Amino acid sequence: MSELKWQGKWNQVKGKFKQQWADLTDDDLLFVEGKEDELLGRLQEKTGKSKEDLKKWIDEQVQEID
């Protein structure tokens, strides 16, 4: 799924991130168009997950929302 699809659902996905990883802050989860790689890098550092695992997890969350 594309990062553009994530952007449309980001507020909902952000809440799921906070439920899964309580130590994430709003700054960690800031989605800025065109800077998806930076977002994934921040999430990778905080969660210890690979970028591929994070993309897969986000895709699953977006599909649940749809």
- What shape does the CA trace take? globular
Summarize the biggest pleated sheet: none
- The secondary structure category is mainly alpha
Quote the average pLDDT.
Answer: 87
For this structure, the quaternary state is single chain
Percent range for β-strand residues: under 5%
Number of domains: 1
- Distance between the ends: 12 Å
Helix share bin: 55-70%
Low-confidence stretches: none
Let me know the number of strands.
Answer: 0
Can you describe what's shown?
With 66 residues, the protein is mainly alpha-helical. The protein has one domain (3-65). 68% of the residues lie in helices and 0% in strands. It contains 3 helices and no strands. Helix 1 (3-20) packs across helix 3. The longest helix has 18 residues, at 3-20. It is globular. The model has no long low-confidence stretch (mean pLDDT 87).
